[in-house]
Write a structure and sequence with these properties.
Blueprint lengths: L13 H15 L5 H21 L6 H23 L9 H6 L7 H28 L7 H22 L6 H11 L4 H17 L4 H22 L11
Helix pairs in contact: 1-2, 1-3, 2-3, 2-5, 2-6, 3-5, 5-6, 5-8, 5-9, 6-8
Organism: Streptomyces africanus
Pfam family, one: DUF5995
Protein name: AcrR family transcriptional regulator
Length: about 240
């Protein structure tokens, strides 16, 4: 794969290292690349989490940092898989497959990436964090909710920033209809349930693996729907 697809190696400081890797990735991608669109959104979220940690807004900063880094690593591993010509998880495949499609709008790319990352990666990151810190999901609920609240607060701004302008109002109705079918709050609630289920299934690895695969497939299907190409303005009557 081209060099521009590669993610720089992590550095020692956890959150700062993640931010550095995403900034470096952003510098190598074309601004209209669907992965670049999501990467910019996720970079803003991660920088906000970092500010929250620095300002003491997390009850348990160590748990918050661990969850944030485990979470980000899932996305960066998907990028690395594509760079190495390996298949990423099913939840990420639609974004990588449609990243250059001219009929997909930036807001669709952003929300499809958020769907993959929240719907699949966050549940696994919660379990990863519990194993690392030797705790149960209930002990991470405050940190999970704080990160989720931050994401929800940013979602409206993301939609406003990336919604087509007046010159594209003729496609706004189908776009609004399409994206109105997905909710970050509902996705976050489902993720918490999935994380608790996976933790409860940790003693049944075969069942946990099947559950994870089905979750991955379902989230990937939702992402494919979010990336439904819309007609170009010149193609409309």
């Amino acid at each position: 794969m081209p060099r521009c697809e590669q993610v720089p190696p992590a550095v020692d400081t956890p959150v700062d290292g993640v931010i550095s890797r995403m900034r470096a990735l952003d510098a190598t991608l074309h601004p209209r690349d669907g992965v670049a669109v999501f990467n910019r959104v996720y970079l803003a979220v991660t920088e906000a989490v970092d500010r929250y940690v620095d300002s003491g807004r997390f009850a348990d900063p160590h748990a918050a940092i661990t969850l944030d880094v485990r979470f980000a690593q899932r996305y960066l591993e998907a990028v690395e898989a594509v760079a190495g010509e390996r298949r990423p998880p099913a939840c990420w495949r639609p974004l990588f497959q449609f990243r250059r499609h001219p009929g997909v709008r930036p807001l669709q790319f952003a929300l499809a990436g958020i769907n993959a990352h929240i719907g699949h990666d966050l549940a696994l990151a919660v379990v990863d964090t519990c194993r690392t810190l030797d705790c149960a999901p209930a002990e991470l609920e405050d940190e999970f909710d704080a990160v989720g609240d931050l994401l929800v607060s940013l979602e409206e701004r993301i939609r406003e920033d990336l919604m087509p302008g007046p010159d594209l109002l003729q496609i706004a109705d189908p776009l609004t209809h399409l994206l109105g079918s997905w909710s970050l709050e509902r996705a976050r609630d489902a993720t918490w349930t999935a994380a608790r289920a996976l933790w409860a299934l940790r003693g049944l690895p075969d069942v946990a693996e099947e559950f994870t695969e089905r979750l991955d497939t379902a989230v990937g299907f939702a992402g494919r729907m979010l990336l439904t190409p819309l007609p170009q303005p010149s193609c409309l009557p």
